[in-house]
Amino acid sequence: MTARFLRAALLCAIAYANPAAAQSGAPPAAAYFAQPAIEDAVLSPDGRRVAARTLIDGRARLALFDMSGAAPTIHAVALPEEERLEWHRWLGGDRLLVSLLTEGPHPTTRLASLDLTTGALTQLGTARPAEVDEQVLHVSPDGRFLLLAAPVPGRVTPGVYRIDLTTGATSLAVAPQDHVWDWVADSAGVIRAGMAQDGNRSWLLYRKHEGDRFSRSARGAGDARSGIERFVPIRGTDSGYALAQTPSGRIGLYAYDFAREQLCALLYEDRRVDLDGFQTDPDGRLLGVDYSSDRPETHWFDSHMQQRQRQIDAALPGRANRVLASTPDGLRSLVFSESAGDPGAFYVFGDSRATRVAAVSPTMSDQPAPEMRAVRYRARDGLEISGYLTLPAGRAAHGLPLIVMPHGGPFARDSWGYDPWVRYLADRGYAVLQPNYRGSTGFGRAFVARGDGQWGRGMQDDLDDGIAWLAAQGVADPNRVCIVGASYGGYAAMWAATARPGPYRCAVSFAGISDVGAQLAFDHKTFEERAYRAWKARIQGNAPSLDALSPIAHAASLRIPLMIAHGTADDTVPPDQSVRLHQTLTRLGRAHDYVAYPDQGHTLEGPRDNADFLDRIGRFLAEHNPA
Question: Which intervals hold domain Peptidase S9 prolyl oligopeptidase catalytic (predicted)?
């Protein structure tokens, strides 16, 4: 391989053409990161309008989509030119709540009520520094008031402000409490609970009614909320719902007794995956639970919503269709619909038909889309591994060149849906395997624990075993396989290139970890000592040392082409993790590619650098593993 050391200087402003893209007719890399044509869509209370941020004359602006007819009509909403819309939501039939950002040396944000009939903008409360952490906890359905968790002058922890949405008058509804960082409101707009944290200790402050005093957990710190991921109180009662670990180790939905601070009946558990969330109506009636098995979906308990989901899925077949909101009468719903090859589109479903509001990326929606399949295979020790296989459009699923793409984390997971890296590779003729290797979250506590002590070992075996399975199926050519990953996926790519190249012809790492010991030393400052030791043991397992798990310690064994990339402002995995490996390989005379992205963090932001990186991947693969 020709030595090409791409130094960590300023990047060239013009990315040169990708010959693989030119030959395949696939969209250029920039198309995969084009500015969304629509985002943050919210449905009006009557279901006849959608407010969203959309592109108008190349600029993101607030717009109203009138959905009364057979096709939407779009009207731009005027906002001050010197301010940027942060988010918005409905306050009633003709009013929007908007958060506006004023940029500059000292950026500020403010809340305002926007009258859509007159265009009048009424500021609510005072403007605040943009870096201040705030959270809207509740907006009353009649548009009279909202509750805002925000810092209180002179206090470390936040209080809760009540803001009148007509006059803008502001009052402190709940004063800050020591160690309470999060507040929980019910659907009536009553602050019911505060979640406190002091080091490793945690506890709950709770009250039933607005005039009651908050009481602290009688059981003491840490016991009341053990294993609980999220809970919601039902207004006027001591009852509620909680997501928590079940005896099987998966996240399920429980009834929760706030007065006794204990889980009650297990209401729902999926046999394979953790629940992501749940939905209730304002009266506390349970509507459904959300989870991602083979695809993202909702299990509805409500019979009307069950029927509605069936109708939506029939109108938009072969896609993942999530109901985002419905009108109070249940007759119209806002739906986000996506597929593996399409970033998605918003629809309003009503009168037995789905009317498209707008597509997130019209360019990508109009292209022939690859197919994404949920797959399962057995690792060499018999453990079942699930994942996703994306196949290029227009090619038979036989003898394909393969890209293995392990997710980051490693305590995370991949799900069915659009991924620009995957779509880019599939459009260039590659099959892409995304394994949820052992240690991935979302499949229960026991599966996560199977990843303990398995960096570079069992977790890596799961990737290799996926290749062998696809080769045995005839889908993949085992002699044309590369690995591409970011964060922990970048570590896996570095490890495959240095310690155990095995089935791989080449490897690409973004923000990968080359020195496990140095990364743990960096992480140490965010851990208490006991937690740090447990984390270190969880990674090292029975390995003789952390060096034994570090790609940089095996740099001399590099035998396949390797591309390394990193953002210079990464504060999760320090850029030194890639710089030092690059320097070591250079000193050893091992040819490789290296690129640094100035001012970028742990993930690339903005279309320019994202497109540049994909272009580089395309050229690298075209040379070392052509499709």
Answer: 422-624
Report the alpha-carbon angle 240-241-243, nearest 5: 155
Distance CA 513, CA 486 (A): 9
Helices 516-523 & 576-588, crossing angle to 10 degrees? 160
Quick: pLDDT tens for 99-137. Answer: 999 988 889 999 999 999 999 999 988 888 887 788 899
Angstrom distance (rounded) from CA 605 to CA 106: 22
Q: Report yes or no on 209 lying in a domain.
A: no
CA distance 406 to 413: 9
Contact between residue 13 and residue 337 where contact means Cβ atoms under 8 Å apart: no
CB 405 within 8 A of CB 431: no
- Is the omega angle on the peptide bond into residue 503 within 30 degrees of 0, that is, cis? no
What is the tally of structural domains in the chain?
Answer: 1
**Tokens, residue 421:** 């890296």
CA triple 372-374-377, angle to 5 deg: 130
24 φ/ψ angles, rounded to the nearest 5 degrees:
-85, -15
Note whether residue 581 is domain-resident: yes
Strand partners, 89: 97
Q: Is residue 149 part of a domain?
A: no
**Residues linked to residue 591 through DSSP beta bridges, in sequence order:** none
Residue 491 has pLDDT above 70, yes or no: yes
pLDDT band, residue 20 (cuts 50/70/90): very low
**Structure confidence by residue, pLDDT tens digits, 522-543:** 998 888 888 888 889 999 999 9
Nearest by Cα to 506 from 478, 477, 480: 480
The SS3 call for residue 196 is: strand
Instruction: Give dist(CA 618, CA 627) in Å, integer.
Output: 10
What's the confidence (pLDDT) of residue 226? 53
On the question of pLDDT at 407 being above 90, the answer is: yes
User: Does residue 586 contact residue 556 with C-beta atoms inside 8 Å?
Assistant: no
Q: Is 283 left (phi over 0), alpha (psi -120 to 50) or beta?
A: alpha
| Residue-wise DSSP of 238-300 | SEEEEEEE-TTSSEEEEEEETTTTEEEEEEE--SSS-EEEEEE-TT--EEEEEEESSSEEEEE
pLDDT at 221 over 70: no
Domain coverage including residue 434: 368-624
CA Rg value for the chain:
26
Q: Tell whether 410 is covered by a domain.
A: yes
Given the DSSP bridges, would you call strands 95-102 and 83-90 parallel, antiparallel or unpaired?
A: antiparallel
Could you give the CA distance from residue 343 to residue 146 in angstroms, rounded to a whole number?
A: 33
- pLDDT for 502 beyond 90: no
CA distance linking residue 364 with residue 419, whole number of Å:
12
Q: Are 510 and 565 in contact (CB under 8 A)?
A: yes
Enter the DSSP assignment of 589. Answer: T
CATH number at residue 593: 3.40.50.1820
